[in-house]
């Protein structure tokens, strides 16, 4: 946040804020509310993304962020009556494709894990997961 404010003042863009607010079609109050709530939602998003990184993984945090990408243009079309351009459609399709690839890879990894769990140990002629079924398995 501080870096953004420093950049705003160093670049001289702060001089244009009053004119930009006057030219905003929905009015001054709407302009300020837009800025404030944009800042609040970005802070909530950033804290949530960091929380996902610490609790789950950075990959999962990135997947959740990618899953949110197609939602924003669709909401913009319905709420702000924005036009759906070809670039937005391609971005949405790529985001959905990325999420589907992530889910499919987890599915393949799960199949491989199940396959490994059902293989037999050649020395004991027992399944490798026999300790789970015998009741001797205790999670750490």
Describe this structure in words.
This protein has 140 residues and is mostly helical. It folds into 2 domains: 1-55; 57-122. It has helices at 2-11, 17-23, 28-55, 58-68, 71-79, 86-118, 130-133, and strands at 120-121, 126-127. Strands 1-2 form a two-stranded antiparallel ribbon. A hairpin with a 4-residue loop joins strand 1 (120-121) and strand 2 (126-127). Helix 3 (28-55) runs antiparallel to helix 4 (58-68). The two termini are 41 Å apart. The mean pLDDT is 81.
Question: N-to-C SSE series?
Answer: HHHHHHEEH
* Distance between the first and last residues' Cα: 41 Å
Share of helical residues:
over 70%
**How many individual domains?**
2
Q: In this structure, how is the largest beta sheet organized?
A: 2 strands, antiparallel
- Write down the overall geometry: elongated
Relative strand content: under 5%
For the biggest β-sheet, the strand order reads 1-2
SSE inventory with pairings:
Blueprint: H1 2-11, H2 17-23, H3 28-55, H4 58-68, H5 71-79, H6 86-118, E1 120-121, E2 126-127, H7 130-133
Main location: membrane
GO cellular component, one term: membrane
Protein name: Purine permease
Task: Supply the key terms.
2 domains; two-stranded antiparallel sheet; mainly alpha; 140 residues; 3% strand
Provide a concise account of the structure shown.
The protein is mostly helical. The chain folds into two domains: 1-55; 57-122. The chain has seven helices and two strands; from the N terminus they run ααααααββα.
